[in-house]
Amino acid sequence: MKSKTGVDYQFGVKNNWRRWQWNRIVERLRVLNKRPKNCLVLYLPGEKDLDRPVALSKRFSPDNLIAVEADKTVVDKLRVRGVNCIHGDLGKVIENWPDKEPRIDVVVADYCCGITEVVATFIESFNFTPGVSDKFVVSINMLRGRDSWSNFLREQDTVFGKHDQKHRGMQFVYFLMQPYLHAMEMVAEDICNCQHCGASAEKNVVFQEKFMKHNWARLYDYTKPEFQTYSSVMGNMKMDSVVFIWGKTVCNLHDGQEDIIVEHIQSEKSEAVLMYEKKRKLLSDKSVIARISAAKAVRTMRLEVGV
Q: What are the C-alpha distances in Å from 192 to residues 203, 205, 285?
C-alpha cells in the first residue's frame, strides 16, 4: 500500500515497528495504572490509518482514538470510513485542547521529517498545554536527516551516550528535558555556594557531576524512554523512534534536602508559562477549538449509544 507520494508504509519492518510502538505505549500506561480502553489518544493516521487496527488489538477503545490529519482529502476519506478525525495540525490541536476532561493520555506522531522548527514547537507544547493528563505517554517516529534547523542539538554533548548525536528520538527527549537539566545545573551551583563554601574547585566539579548524574537518573526513570531505529522499505533512510512518559509532575523530582531544585524549575517554568500563555493567546485558533469540540461531541455520542 502506497501513499500519494509513492512511499510504501505497509511492509514487514514497518508493521513490526508498529507492534513494537503500541506494545511500548501499553507498558507505560500500565506503569501509570491506566487501562488502554479508558485512554484518549491523538494520532497521525495517514491515508491508510494503519496504526488504528494495531491500537484496537491492544484494547484501545475506537471511541477514544481521535485522528488528526492536515490533508482535507484524507480527512474526508477517513470520516466516510467512520474514523473520528480532526482536520488540522497535531501541534495546534494539542495547543488548543481545553483544560477539562477528557484530557489527552497518549500522543502518537509518525513524522516524515526530523526535528524541524514545526516539530520543535510541537515538542514545547507538551510542557505547557493544559489539555494533557498529569502524566501521559508520547510516541514519536522521525526521519534521520533533512533537519538542519536542529543542527545545534547534534553539536551538544547530551546524555544518552555515543549514539545520541544521530538518533532523533534521543534528541527529541533531550530537547524536551533541557529546561529541567538547566535548572538542575543551577541547583548544583547553589548547593556548592551554600554548602560547600571553602571547598576546592575540583571538589565542587566532582560534586556537580555526581549531582547531575543522580538527578538525570531519576528523570530517566520517570520518563522511561525506549528507543528504536529501522530502515525504510528501500533501505536508504533511517527512522528513529522513542516512546516515553511525560507530565506536569516532572518538576517534583527532587530529594528532601534539595528543595531548591523546585524553586529553580518552577521559576524557569513560570517565566516560560507566562511567555507561552501570551503566545498561546496569540496563536489560539477558534476554528481548531471548534473542530476539537466537534470531535469530542462525536466521541461522547458514540460512547452514549455504543456505536
A: 9, 9, 46
pLDDT tens by residue, 227-261: 999 987 766 789 999 999 998 766 555 444 444 45
- Count of domains for the chain: 1
Q: Quick one: which of 179, 159, 173, 171 has its CA closest to 245?
A: 173
Domain with 94 in it = 12-176+224-249
pTM: 0.85
CATH number at residue 169: 3.40.50.150
